[in-house]
Automatic annotation (TrEMBL):
Family: Belongs to the hyi family.
One Pfam assignment: AP_endonuc_2
Domain of life the protein comes from: Bacteria
Isomerase found in the keyword field: yes
Active site: 143, 241
A biological process term (GO) from this entry: glyoxylate metabolic process
Name of this chain's protein: Hydroxypyruvate isomerase
Ranges of residues in domain Xylose isomerase-like TIM barrel: 22-256
Keywords on record: Isomerase, Pyruvate
Any one GO MF annotation of this record: hydroxypyruvate isomerase activity
Amino acid sequence: MPRFAANLSLLFNEYPFLDRFGAAAAAGFEGVEYLFPYAWRREDLAEKLQQHRLTQVLFNLPAGDWEAGERGIACLPDRIEEFREGVFQALDYARALDCRRLNCLAGLWHDVDQARPAWDTLVENLRFAADLLAPEGITLTVEAINSRVDMPGFLLDTSARAMTAINACGRDNVLLQYDLYHMQIMEGDLCRSLSRLCPHIGHIQFADNPGRHEPGSGEIHFPVVFAHLDRLDYQGWVSAEYHPLAGTEAGLGWLHDFKETQCE
Ligand SMILES: O=C(O)[C@@H](O)C(=O)CO
Ligand SMILES: [Mg+2]
């Protein structure tokens, strides 16, 4: 059975942020992730993890001005210094939270005919981050995000593009973050791509499509996909990263169903 984590930026929004840890643990999650930890004190986050016996599964490197629409700075040639400072900041938090995975968002790049500078910058930045994180035993993940609905212009919008960056970077501790929701929109054929990419996957996230809501609300057959991950012997975390339709707890039927079938 996959190890399920809850993304606290999207789930349990009924509670103030620091109360979401307890709510996730009470709902049966063993791990948590969120987009960014930087607005909170490391000590407070570490205390919540310890109090509720939760694993900090992952969070993102600083990704620029999120409110202003930025979605990562790793591919931006004029932001290299800021990217590198961000890696140090993320490492500080990762140490305090004993977090073994950090995700890098490549960023938006709208000039498709002139993408070379973005790719070169991205690959150099990935190498910089990977080399800093490797001695700490931390994996750097690179997420492919759909450019059709959620992030028009995102540089790495297919698994092939993300793998091109990962291969070009050439570091063992850089792996793919495979988000079932984004890949369903861009590529489909989820089980076959999971089979092919499994050795390169460092983290999985999910939401149903369309709508980015809980499993069962859309077209993805999650029991089949989760069983497929077991058959592939995928050992990583699988994180719920969706907008609950009618309250987080009310939308956890997929988790309860899944746990029940494991007990039968
Ligand atoms: O899928 C997503 O959107 C996230 O994993 C993320 O970190 C950036 O929004
Ligand atoms: Mg994601």
